[in-house]
Amino acid sequence: MSTTTIAPVRAEAGGYVVRTAGPQDIGGARAVMLDTVYRDLRSGYVPRWHADIIDPEAAYLRPARCTLLVAERDGEIVATGAVRDRGPQAPPNPQWVADRFPSGTTAQLCRVYVAPEHRRHGLARRMVRELRDFVARAGGYEAVYLHTDPAVPGAEPFWRSLAGEVCDERALPGGGQGIVHFELPLPPEAPQPLPFK
């Protein structure tokens, strides 16, 4: 299990609690992720893209430099956000994008999903803030990368408000995969929490 944690659990406005996921949260997190890939992304489950959704514990909870966060309200998981320690692969991504964000030194933000009825409450921004803090505490990362599907309502403007565009595949010959690649500023190194005595 990952030993790097987020800030202490606290309720936010609206009764939302953002925290590091544990094994008891896997079912709820998986439901949010699968709902999103079917409803918003409209791709459905594609094994080569979504294997981490089927086994989030192996993808995010066990590796020390990865994490899965959940937002909970009234006992229900309503949002997710994750960091994995690998960059985009080529193919299907452009080779130069893969070269810019190599695995091992790239923290990839992924699965930042909020159930529709819980959007517009600042949960995605809170997730990104907590994930960036995790990256700083984990150490060893040289870049923070993510990609998004601009066909998802609100996704592209949200990420443009936080990150710099690296590549908009819609401008490539043939349109590529139609996704937009972004880089977030690397957070300053966060101090490690002091151990209890």
From TrEMBL:
**PROSITE patterns attached to this UniProt entry:** GNAT
Which intervals hold domain N-acetyltransferase? 16-189
Q: Which keywords has UniProt assigned to this entry?
A: Transferase
Pfam families per the UniProt record, alphabetical? Acetyltransf_1
Please give the PANTHER family that the UniProt record associates with this protein: GNAT FAMILY N-ACETYLTRANSFERASE, LD18367P
Q: What is this protein called?
A: GNAT family N-acetyltransferase
- The organism is Streptomyces poriferorum
What taxonomic classification does the UniProt entry list for its organism?
A: Bacteria, Bacillati, Actinomycetota, Actinomycetes, Kitasatosporales
